[in-house]
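Sequence of dTDP-4-dehydrorhamnose reductase (Caldisphaera lagunensis).
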Amino acid sequence: MVMKLLITGITSLPGYKTVIEGIEKNHEIVGIYHEKIPDLKIKLIKADLTNKMLTQDIIIKEKPDAIIHIAGMGDVDNCEVEKEKCFNSNYLSTLNIVKVSNAFNIHMIYLSTDYVFDGQKGNYKENETPNPINYYGLTKLLGESSVKTLTNYAIVRTSTIYGIGIGRSNFAMYLINKLKNGEEIKAVVDQFTSPTNTTLLAKALIEIAEKRLIGVFHVGGERLSRYEFAVKLAEKMGFDTDLIRKTYINEMKWKAKRPIDSSLNFDNTKKFIDINFYETENALNILKSEYYSLKVEKDN
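Predicted 3D structure, token representation.
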């Protein structure tokens, strides 16, 4: 069934990829962007989602079957410094969408984060109690709380998003750009997440919309340290793994605290989602294919 999907944050990597996946599934896509105009052949609307009336007017006019809310401030360190901007971007905009979604019973899908957890245990299930240790995680949790006031919602927590495309730099592209030039990099060995291929995340988001799934879902990859992920990526791409140096979380000059182990458990999500979003081998194969496809396009 063809759906009308309103997707926010389409100039981010996950937003862009979700639009592409929606187009490939023949859905009607309306994309919301804030500043830079994206190169996408869909209906584009420029909007500041912290503006309550503007946000509600857009949604009422477009009448989407579902809203996939990806927009937000994702730089963890900047969130610690620019707290008001982070609050408005991650919570206030979400609240504005929630209010109109509730009034018109629109299925709202909210992209959240593993950083709602404190990282004391790892392998977190959807029903475990969040306890964020940085401001970014707090604002995303506030967003979750507002979304949970709806009856027709899905919260998708993910982790360390990476991939080929647009948006701000991500760890995988940083690694590729350094290692292909023979430059050494440092990667933390004692912080664990569930690195997530953005193409697979996008497929999961569209599938959740199509199936109108309700509840909280974890989507991501296998539990890995940044060092382990860097080595696996280097091996897959044929780069020299000796260029990857170990470092530790207490040596990093981050402004915001990071959870030691915010890895996610996917047992529940696997019951509902058909795609293999969780195996690192599959995810890195997709990354490699997309990287060389893009390289060929640029070379031509």
